[in-house]
Structure formats: C-alpha cells, structure tokens
C-alpha cells in the first residue's frame, strides 16, 4: 500500500523559509515520480515540483523556480521541498504525490496523495 506522510508545514513571514518532508512507503522509491502539489482556497490545484530519483528528473512550476528546491534521501525514503523567499501567494495546503512513472513535462500527475500540510505565509 502506497503511503505518503507530509510534515514541516507552518506559519512563516514573507521572505522566510520552510522545509517540507514526505516520508514514503509501499512502493519503489527510486522508480516512482514523487512530488508536491498545492491548493489554496478558491484556487485550482497546482503542481509545484516533482522528482524521480532513478535519473534525477526534476520539474518545477514557473511560480516557484529559483525559490524552491526538491531533493530526496533514498536511505530515509523521504522527499524534501525546501521553500525559500516565501510569498503570501505560496499559502496553501501542500500535498505529497506519487506516480508509478514519469509523466511527460510535469513528471507527477498524482496517482497517490498524502493527507497534506498547511503552509501559511503572512505579509
């Protein structure tokens, strides 16, 4: 059974940083596309970033390029999202997602989802 458990959300001021973690189990960690999507109230869900460890394929949404960094720790089966220079528009529930293969261009489509972690950026 695929399980994704997020942690690391919280409240931060504009310009601050947070690191999200996603502990993954129940599937081949290096072969799956694992990433992050977010959803803010009243807005469409947005794919934020995705990574596949087997070949280091990475995707970033334009809205986070240069500010967010996705990485993995294979030994811990954990995916991280380092978020720097946070803006109020980054406020959302962030979900960890996993897919059995890399989807063209965006990597992750979200076959499996975690429960989400809230990120709030105050202005």
List keywords for this structure.
123 residues; 4-stranded antiparallel sheet; mainly beta
Question: Would you kindly provide a written description of the structure presented here, covering whatever features stand out?
Answer:
Helices cover 0% and strands 51% of the residues. It is built from no helices and eleven strands. Strands 2, 4, 5, 6, 9, 10 and 11 form a seven-stranded mixed β-sheet that branches.
Give the CA-CA distance, first to last residue: 40 Å
Secondary structure class reads mainly beta
Q: Which shape, going by the Cα principal axes? A: globular
Per DSSP, what share of the residues sits in E-state strands of 2 or more residues? over 45%
Mean pLDDT: 96
Number of strands: 11
Helix content: under 10%
Question: How would you briefly describe this protein structure?
Answer:
This protein has 123 residues and is mainly beta. It is built from no helices and 11 strands.
């Amino acid at each position: 059974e695929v399980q994704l458990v997020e942690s690391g959300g919280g409240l931060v001021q504009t310009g601050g940083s947070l690191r999200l973690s996603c502990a993954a189990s129940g599937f081949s960690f290096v072969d799956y596309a694992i990433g992050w999507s977010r959803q803010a109230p009243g807005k469409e869900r947005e794919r934020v970033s995705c990574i596949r460890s087997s070949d280091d394929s990475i995707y970033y949404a334009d809205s986070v390029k240069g500010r967010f960094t996705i990485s993995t720790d294979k030994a811990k089966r954990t995916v991280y999202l380092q978020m720097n220079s946070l803006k109020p528009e980054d406020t959302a529930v962030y979900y960890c997602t996993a897919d059995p293969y890399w989807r063209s261009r965006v990597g992750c489509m979200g076959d499996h989802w975690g429960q989400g972690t809230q990120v709030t950026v105050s202005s």
